[in-house]
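Okay, can you check this protein?
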Amino acid sequence: MAKEKILIVDDEKDILELVRYNLAREGYQVHSASTGESAIEQAKSVNPNLIILDLMLPGMDGLEVARILKQNSDTSHIPIVMLTAKGDDADIVAGLELGAEDYITKPFSPRVLVARVRTVLRRVQKPGVEGGDIIKIHELSINPLRHEVLVKNKPVDLTATEFKILQILAARPGWVFTRNQIINRLRGDDYPVTDRSVDVQIVGLRKKLGVAADCIETIRGVGYRFKE
């Protein structure tokens, strides 16, 4: 059975070849583009299973490429992993809020990159649950229908907002959620809550989770994620 198709978008030939070599060695079908315009064309013609997208591209930058791809019904389903220079927190947040699934900072380990690609593809193939299914991960058990959380089989009393935040994060372990994404999933785009409000909710949630508190990771300058 053929491996998934991956489109790599980067204008640096050395990085393009490094990523291509390591993914091809794992059996993936690899396509490449060095400009944003070419990336959009190939995304439509090749229909890859995943796109690795450098944010610093000549002309049309990676964020604009991501915006166009996510707004097009033919390409909006394709998961995007961003490649970004360290410290570009604002770009990472912007990319995640445009719909990118993950990001990798430069310089990066090829082994880590391949592992992250596998993880994103696995997530896409097995969507998270935010409905009525019970989530069991680490020492936590989350029952949405009963609005019940257990840590080591002991009940934890959470507010409705704390419960929903935990459910959002735990349903997709490893996914990074920005504060705005959490707010939008809580109440919709018009919910008048600040970034600081989300931070306060997370602090309270961690205190109540006790030994399971470290399941919620802070991604500095970006947001939060639940440990895989």
User: Anything to note?
Assistant: Residues 183 and 189 are 7 Å apart (CA to CA).
